[in-house]
Amino acid sequence: MISLTQSSSTPLLKTISYTLLALIAFAANSVLCRYALEHNAIDASTFTSLRLASGALVLFFMISLHRQARSERSKGSWLAGFMLFTYACSFSFAYNLLGAAMGALILFGAVQISMIGFSSLSGNRLHLIEWFGVIFASIGFIYLVLPGLSAPPFLGVILMVLSGFAWAIYSLKGQQSSQALMDTAYNFLRTLPFVLLLTLLTFETAHFSYQGILLAVASGGITSALGYILWYRALRNLSSTQAAVVQLLVPVITALGGILFLSEVPSTRLVIASILILGGILCVILGRYYFLTLRLRA
Question: Which of 154, 209, 223, 229 pairs with 237 at a CA distance of 20 to 30 A?
Answer without folding.
Answer: 223
